[in-house]
Amino acid sequence: MSKVSEIFDSLVTRVSAVLPSYTHMPDAYSLKSNANIDLFKGFAVGIGPTVPAGTQEGFCDKYMFDTIYFVTVSNDYNIITNTDSRNADEKSITEDLYLVTKDLLKNFRLGGLTVDISFNDTSGPSYLNEDEKRFLISAASYRVRYQENLS
User: Fold this and answer.
1) Distance CA 39, CA 136 (A)
2) CA dist 8 to 76, 83, 110, 145, Å?
3) Superfamily in which the 3-149 domain is placed by CATH
4) In the chain, where are the structural domains located?
5) pTM score
6) 19's torsion region: left (phi>0), alpha (psi -120 to 50) or beta?
């Protein structure tokens, strides 16, 4: 098995520890297909593209890879015309993603699985369904560098 799966599992564990009140959503790629109960306060981890990052100097049988992982958080959003309430919801979901980012950058080795983790960007708060405006979501992406033994 490659480290991609192990890193994925480790990310789920880290996010669960940082955001204990959140539920792990099973589908990171089609958030609308997750149950509403999960979307009320949930997170998902997804795997993006992988690119080669070269060989580790002095080790011809070890190859470096960079894979993009993303963490999406979702919160229930009550449609309120009160701007202060809406702003509070948007700030809350942004702060939760900041906590995840801070933890991943601090614990970038993920128990020795990775060489480095860098923060790429966030999507910023948006609605899962623009028509309903029921759930507020935001995602952050990270470049995760790791090495695989090719022998």
Assistant:
1) 9
2) 25, 37, 10, 13
3) Phage tail protein-like (3.30.2000.10)
4) 3-149
5) 0.90
6) beta
- Residue 72 CB-density burial (10 A; 0-12 exposed, 13-18 middle, 19+ buried): buried
CA distance 142 to 151: 28
Residue-wise pLDDT for 15-50, tens only, equals: 999 999 999 999 999 998 989 888 989 999 999 999
CA atoms lying within 13 Å on the CB side of residue 47: 14
- Say whether pLDDT at 85 is over 90: no
CA 147 – CA 129 distance, rounded (Å): 38
Report helix, strand or coil for 79: coil
Tell me if 41 sits within 8 A of 23, measured CB to CB.
yes
